[in-house]
Amino acid sequence: DGSYEIDHLPKGNDYIITVLPPFGAEDAFKRLTGISITADRALDIQLNPELLFSGILTDQSTQKAVPDASVIVFSASTGYWNETISNKDGLYKAHHVPTGDDYMVIVNAPDYLESKKTNLTPGINIDFSLETGGVISGVVKLASTGKGMPNVPIEVYSVSNAGLSDFGGIATTDANGQYRISQLKITDHKGYDITDYTVFIYPDGYPPQSRGNKATGKTVNFVVAGGESNQTIGTVKMPENSSVIVDVFENDSDFVTCAQVSDTGNFIVEGLHANKKYQYRFIAVIQDIAEPLIQWAGENQLGVNDRENAVEYGVPSVLYFEFQTDERKRSNNSVTDNIFKTDLPITNMSIFSGG
Predict the structure, then answer these.
(1) What are 176's strand-pairing partners?
(2) What DSSP designation does 300 have?
């Protein structure tokens, strides 16, 4: 008969009562706030007829229906929240919707970018055309066993679009060390392919690693190693009044990681692969000099300006690096050549922004 009773309530002036109609009912969800209960009382609740949210989800490219997508409908003013799943025809329906004009509908489907519409009123034919998203996947293995590492946090983002939605994602490796990050933008707002995704891994008890300059659709694998056999240690003859970092690259041009050089000129790079060769780029920010000094470790571990003259080092290695300041090009054009025409990232420059 629609009666209800709630027992053993302490006194209060800020109770919230919500009514969730059962499946098949044609009534709307209702939330009452600011209810005062200082003694036994009767409170009748009149439910309004339900409204609906419904629509069709289709693939933007093929116009085919998108099934099994999650559709969340939410309103802050009414307190309504509901999640439903699109059927084989791409149709979704959210029932028991109360009147409101601040609804948000959020659609998430595997391998598609998240799509949302805001400031909606309930209604039918609220359709979505979903844009295909890119995927970056791979496996993280432990070098000593060759087995996959579970529960490793993974982060992916586009360097040129960092902080923007759809240009990054996070995941955790599964029991076999595999990961998959989807819903990534394939092209930027100008229609150009995005090729500067960087993948970071953060294995517990091991140094973090990264792989840069990746496009969606790529498989990016990692081998995690630790110990002295997977280290490069070194000493830098520091230019006066300078701060230095060292960037590490594999021979295939991929950036791997970076390390801060201490004030005494010492550094250590961990987590390298014993069967690979690496090149080292040193970046010095010198007080009162606008442009950084950027050189690669060359023959006799002396600085060279061009990567083609950089030496390939195995692991483990010990470096004693010295900048060659007489080779430094001081014109703006040469600095631009040195920094920006390599198509290689210059990492962590903001670490020196304090001077």
Answers:
(1) none
(2) G
Domain boundaries, the chain: 51-130, 134-224, 228-352
What's the CATH number for 228-352? 2.60.40.10
Picking from 178, 54, 162, 183, the residue whose alpha carbon sits closest to that of residue 108 is 183
Tell me the three state secondary structure of residue 293: strand
Sign of the C-alpha dihedral computed for residues 5, 6, 11 and 13 taken in this order: negative
CB proximity list for 139: less than 8 A, separation 6 or greater:
148, 173, 176, 177, 178, 179, 221, 222
Q: What is the pTM of this model?
A: 0.59
Buried b (16+ CB within 10 A) or exposed e, 225-243: bbeeebbbebbbebbeebb
∠ CA 291-297-299 to the nearest 5 degrees? Answer: 130
User: What one-character DSSP code corresponds to residue 98?
Assistant: P
**Do the beta carbons of residue 216 and residue 134 sit within 8 Å?**
yes
Domain 134-224 sits in CATH 3.50.50.60 = no
> What's the CATH architecture for 51-130?
Sandwich (2.60)
How far is the first Cα of the chain from the last one, in angstroms, to the nearest whole number? Answer: 75
Contact 97, 28 (CB under 8 A): yes
Cα 94 from Cα 91, distance rounded (Å): 10
Q: Which two tokens stand for residue 80?
A: 């309504």
Cα(209)–Cα(272) distance, integer angstroms:
9
Over the stretch 166-211, which tens digit does the pLDDT of each residue have? 889 999 999 999 999 999 999 988 889 999 999 999 998 777 888 9
Q: Are strands 232-237 and 317-322 parallel, antiparallel or unpaired?
A: parallel
Please say whether the beta carbons of 136 and 216 come within 8 A.
yes
Residue bearing tokens 């070194």: 234
- Predicted confidence (pLDDT) per residue in 87-104, tens digit: 999 999 999 999 999 999
Tell me whether strands 103-108 and 70-74 are parallel, antiparallel or unpaired: antiparallel
Q: 334: part of which helix (H) or strand (E)?
A: helix 332-340
Q: Do domains 51-130 and 228-352 have the same CATH topology?
A: yes
Q: Where do we find the tokens 């819903």?
A: 183
